[in-house]
């Protein structure tokens, strides 16, 4: 009886698969034969294609910054008892960042070979999630713009908050000098060692640093590193549990107004730093999530004081091949969301909808949405497959 029941069940599954396949082939045929879309459907497909273009650029930008954070020691800045020329060659990675993320020895992990390293992956992903959330998933991603660059402090580097601030200001001075030299070389038609066009050391970067001096999310009492019912580890929970130090460096003359921690202090945590014994330096301990939100709000404040200009497009981010028939219009089509969407619609109308993969997938996503179904949509996800934002 069991064998007969299993056989009927298998035949039923096979029939469902066959029906699903027939529907899939019918959809293919209708897409291939379709000569035009209704104006309403075309408008929805155009919006979907524009969103796809934006999401892919966002994913590409996050992937570039992720590689910077994940690489063992390069291009991460290594801060020892002095800053050598090798580290200055990485100066571009400091540019277009809101702040620097200093990793003290006390927050580093011991590897199997006895050396210390930074557990960068989970912290980077937690920062990325909060950064995206603060910008409603629409941050400035041009030319490696991001929340922070990581700085690994070695055993010979500063161990106090004062020492980190002093080293940070020294680093900013040297990088600024390095950038001026590059600008002079370009002016004299001499190729610079590093091309800093479209890259700058932001005023906020000089004025504020983030320091991680301990790993809170790994505490035995913390439940934020455990998998939840859906099988994923919540990065937003880690960001709320992990604490960091926010420190004013005093270099605020280029800001529109001084930085104030007044609103943060009601949500601050105990400092627990024996090296902070006076008021010569202002520092607060807050959650990583609060720190990201605070710094992003400062950036928005500074941007509001500047005449609004259209952002220059970073053409290194996902320069898509143009659709069939638009090969000679690469730059015009591929670096603008609207032009890219329109080109695919025109190409599909001329050469067939199923012959344009982007158009085909977009139509299916739109039609699925109209019927209440959910199709996989391309969107950035944390690296590793075990975390969620």
Explain this structure.
This protein is of the alpha/beta class and 389 residues long. The protein has 12 helices and 10 strands. Helix 2 crosses helix 11 (337-351) and helix 2 (39-70) crosses helix 12. The longest helix is centred in the N-terminal third of the chain and has 32 residues, at 2-33. It starts with a helix and ends with a strand.
Compact summary:
The protein has 389 residues and is α/β, with parallel strands linked by helices. It is built from 12 helices and 10 strands.
Ordered list of secondary-structure elements with their pairings:
Blueprint: H1 2-33, H2 39-70, E1 77-79, H3 85-88, E2 97-103, E3 109-110, E4 116-117, H4 120-134, E5 146-153, H5 161-187, H6 203-207, E6 208-212, E7 233-234, H7 235-241, E8 243-248, H8 262-265, E9 283-287, H9 288-304, H10 330-334, H11 337-351, H12 357-370, E10 387-388
Parallel strand pairs: 1-5, 2-5, 2-6, 7-10
Antiparallel strand pairs: 3-4, 6-8, 8-9
Distance between the termini: 48 Å
Secondary structure class reads: alpha/beta
Taking strands numbered 1, 2, ... along the chain, how are they ordered across the largest sheet? Answer: 1-5-2-6-8-9
Strand content: 5-15%
Large-scale geometry: globular
- Give the H and E element order: HHEHEEEHEHHEEHEHEHHHHE
What is the count of helical runs? 12
What is the averaged pLDDT score? 83
* Spans where pLDDT lies below 50 across 5 or more residues: none
Helix content estimate? 40-55%
Determine Rg (CA atoms, Å).
26 Å
What is the β-strand count? 10
Task: Outline the biggest β-sheet.
Answer: 6 strands, mixed
